[in-house]
Prior knowledge:
Elements (H helix, E strand, L loop, with lengths): L30 H6 L15 E2 L2 E2 L8 H5 L19 H7 L10 E9 L4 E6 L2 E6 L6 E9 L3 E11 L12 H4 L9 H18 L15 H23 L17 H12 L2 E2 L14 E9 L2 E7 L6 E3 L8 H17 L13 E8 L6 E7 L7 H11 L3 E8 L11 E7 L2 E6 L2 E6 L8 H15 L6 E5 L5 H7 L4 E6 L2 H13 L5 E5 L2 H10 L6 E4 L8 H10 L3 E6 L2 H13 L2 E9 L9 E8 L4
Parallel strand pairs: 5-7, 8-23, 13-14, 18-19, 18-21, 19-20, 21-22
Antiparallel strand pairs: 1-2, 3-4, 3-6, 4-5, 6-7, 9-10, 9-12, 10-11, 12-13, 14-15, 16-17, 22-24, 23-24
Helix pairs in contact: 5-15, 6-7, 8-9, 10-11, 13-14
Amino acid sequence: MTSNRSGRGKSRRNVAAPVQGKPQKKTVQPKREREQGRSQGGTGKEQLGIGIENGNFDGNIKDTDRNRMEKGRGTRRSSGDGQERHTSNRNRSSAERADLPVQKNDEAILDIIGMNHDGEGVGRVEGFTLFIPGALPGEKVRVKVLKTKKQYGYAKLLGIVQASPDRIAAPCAIYDQCGGCQIQHMSYEAQLGWKRQHVVDVLERIGKLSVAASAGSATDSGANANATTESGNQAAQVLAALTGLEANTASSSAVSTDPNADSVSVNLAREQGVVVHPTLGMSEPWRYRNKAQVPIGVTEGGLVGGFYARGSHRIVDMNTCLIQDERNDEVVARVKEIGRMLGISAYNEETGHGLLRHVVVKTAFRTGEMMLVLVTNGRDIPHVDAWIGSIREHIPHVASICQNVNTKRTNVIFGDETRVLWGRDVIYDYIGNVQFAISARSFYQVNPVQTEVLYSKTVEYAGLTGKETVIDAYCGIGTISLFLAQHADQVYGVEIVKEAIEDARSNARLNQMRNVKFEVGASEDVIPGWKEQGITADVIVVDPPRKGCDPRLLDTILEMKPERVVYVSCNPSTLARDLRILEDGGYRTVEVQPVDMFPHTVHVECVVVIYRDRKY
Length: 616
């Protein structure tokens, strides 16, 4: 299952990431030598539970779908790729690429030197790059080449000659089919370390930023906490040296409420480099998702619901998801059972017929309230009273049952009409001490535990004293705005989605916060209007979609010249691009804190504090 923000069009295949590690030394062996040279698996590999036998990895990694391999790969292509002629004549294709060290269907043994932003292992054969799903950095693997292009190709993992110490047996029984958790076969501690390194790499490569020497990357949960403290102490010692404060009285972050601290922090960034802290992970990185969106289909056995098989729209039935709250699994299973009993038809994408399209379940972690949304292809639900009665009988903690009507031939989940079948139109939950009303279609972060970590860091980096005016661009339903409003004089939030602003205003009233104002519109249009009204921001907070900030918003920030910008990012690549623009405009990036919002996936969020350099 994916972790995209509803309505913001986030795609995880935007910008190619670099690989880390030492240069590749291993090249392709002749076939006979390859067959003779398969080494035995090392001690303990049989405990991995992934079919390693005599150095082979058997069957769990399926061929990558051709369409998926082509989709989103444009950033990896050379300038001439768009002019390549595709042909079914294999001899002609081979002739065109005869200079490549490997061809389609060749086998090779190679070292994995890194992992790209999609979680695919990266190896090289005589300088030619291959992407291998399922392979981990540090491993020696046997692969079969599936596809080649001018500068890179894709390969299938056939066997593991030498396993990485970070490899574990993925606990999910359908991990190899689903694709929702791309790196579940990597230990959690290694995931946290890789995510930090991924952030560092794109900051240096795309953002052209100098990153301070690492305080050490985490190898276990304790090391993660210690490394975070060490990075903070590094910043504090430099801050203390520049301000004359004792090190133990300086903030553990370069962020300070001292009015002179901004220039000090700019000097810190200029002289020492950007501090990238170790990734903040979870003590229990399972069952963290509070929302399930399950597509419904039909097989010979009847109604099914689960996930789309990797690279397709074929629905595979699923009874449990290890990153979903167990209560979500329970509700989905019960709805499928009731649907079968009542003879409810499933929507067919090809024909456009059938009723039930999706089952959406939202669970409030703090209050325990649950909302069930039935997304249907039409307004009429047969046996609706029986359905509601059975749900209420078997799932008493459901506080809201809604129907969303979507009759469009689209893969977008929600339609325009939502109505309440039973109960309230919202459920309530808390992040920290702020209460939120969650409707059927409103966006709400799916990992409430890490959301509090993320937002707390945002407030910390904003450095508020209670006197500041803050602008929250891309404010959504006001989650960050209301956190900031507890520490600021006035907060202004702007969001282009009208329904989100309505929710934001309701949430402000719910929490009796009167020092926050929300307006509908594009940030790059609304904020200049505020400036004309005499509203100037001391701090601007941005939390854009995966595509990053609109260029006009960045121009607006540079024109408004707030003392600090706090950037909350869900895409390190577009973050780095935008930071470069702000740096060129007279700002300095000081600290970056990666936060693991989606364990076992390749996604990583960051909170970044940026100061205006008063020399400009």
